[in-house]
Amino acid sequence: MERISALPRLTPGEIAEQKEKEYGPLGEALCRKYLDGIVTADKLPAELARYGAEQKPVVQRALIRALWQSIHFEDGPSARTALSGIALLNGGKAALLEEAGKSFQRVFDEFEREKQEKLHEFSSLANEELKRIGVSGSAVRPNLKHHENWQQELGRIRQSYEPKLKDLKDRLLQECSCIED
Asked: How confident is the model at residue 163, as a pLDDT?
């Protein structure tokens, strides 16, 4: 007991940090389950309700933070699901989150349109290359996933749209006070 009493007391900030480390991964895991469809939108509040008064705010913050971080171009449906989850957990900000969802959809559609245009161009060029070396036919399709020039172009397209997505996410971050990055 003497040794324990000699130890310094934790500050409130240190206690909060320990709680984040302990309960934060639970929110991240819940996010993954939600995005994977294991936990549905109607069950998400019930899952959060399983945690006590001390744990729930930390788990919810971690869940919303993980959902926020899941908004990216690589997986549009998952990003839309993440936005829906954030809206569900921030009921008072439904109009803002609905507008954020529409904005994301506009930016995502622009991104996909430009990506498809460039994909068509690169596909045509790759088909011409294949014809030049004697490979042709209706069953022949170039695999652009491993085409270095296509990957560079895709990176350039993504990079040109990232600022728009970042602006959208930053506005969302400012409006939803429970999201902390």
From this structure: 92
